[in-house]
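Sample entry was shown:

___
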Amino acid sequence: MTRKQQISLIREPAVGCRLLVSGSRSFVALLSALLLICLCGLVATAQKKNSCVDCHSRLEGKIGDPARTIKDDVHLSRGMACNDCHGGDPLADDKTAAKDPRKGYLGKPRTVDIPAFCGKCHNDANFMKKFNPSLRVDQEKEYSTSVHGLLLLKGNERVATCISCHGVHGIRAVTDALASVYPLNVAETCAKCHGDQNYMQAFGIATDQYVKYKGSVHAKALYERQDLSAPTCNDCHGNHGAAPPGIASVANVCGQCHVRQAELFQASPHKAVFDDRQWGECVKCHSNHDIAAPSDDLIGTGEKSLCVTCHKSGEAGFVAAGAMRTRIDDLLAGIDRATEILNRAERAGMEVSRPKFELREAVDGVTHARVLIHTSLPQEVDKVVDPALEVTKKTYLAGEAALAERSFRRKGLVISLFFILFLAVLVYLKVREIESRQPAA
């Protein structure tokens, strides 16, 4: 209280009373606020208590692992706890009370119940929007259509369920590099079952897919170049609706990335033949898991050509394959020829940046021509190769012109140097003549 307030209290008692009442109200408000803070702290402490974790963290082996691995779980980071999945009372210290069925305790679900167990939340669009609005909510339904889900419905509990791929208590977000379903880890996750010969023997499925995939062009892009857009198991087989692509759908699977090639093949003469013989459109030539990097050796009529596995010498297909390969080889030779002369001119100090830039059009033509072989029509390849060859001729001539100009400049330089030297000799002789006319000292 200030001195002015004290004087007012002595002189005017009524004013003093009002000040005391006002002070008491402030004190009560302050006391109430402190009490509320304390209560909130007690509630927060109570909410943080988790007897499930407290108890299981003191146990050894599998029964204690959940309490140790859940610290990295994506659900825990979103505020969910053990009871959100397993039910029970996490505030109870007594084991029986914590596992009270009247409080929804479920315990460990049976394998056959796991999809629905996870689906309680993941099927609920309103609930999932609180955490990740973009996450699909049809995973359980899609799983029921998969090879895994169909076998599970038949009572086979040795098939993969949600926890087989995502884990149990240490489930990480898909974007987490340590997640079992992160792109770089998917193949290893699938291989836990599909690479185990003893495990897969009962299903009559081969177990060499993982080994083959690791040597493929797709795996090299994924692991060596860290290109996360490169396909791995789930990109071709699906995630929750995992199934082997059938003959009718394999082209659609490959066509997700290789759109242009798929469109060209659909309009090619091969389409009807492949359908008639029930051949997989892409895998017939490129295989499936061990897909190698495509090369020009695969087309034409050489020893490594795929065309000769079906087409014999003299057949229309054999002739077409040879023609397409020849045109591509001609274009490559033209590019090499133009590149060599332009590089020589550049090393000689001539300005050839423009023709070198124009030559890129021919290089693009090679890429386009290689794609057009999926039409199986030489005339379609010719439409790209012909203008590209014209570019190589034009740029080659530009290189020749640059070297001719260099030669002309050199000749001009030699003549200039000779003329300068001739003048220098004349000047020298004139100086000597002048010096010889001067009388000796």
Observations:
- Residues 316-437 form one domain.
- The chain has 25 helices and no strands.
- The two ends are 122 Å apart (CA to CA).
- Residues 1-22, 38-47 have pLDDT under 50 and may be disordered.
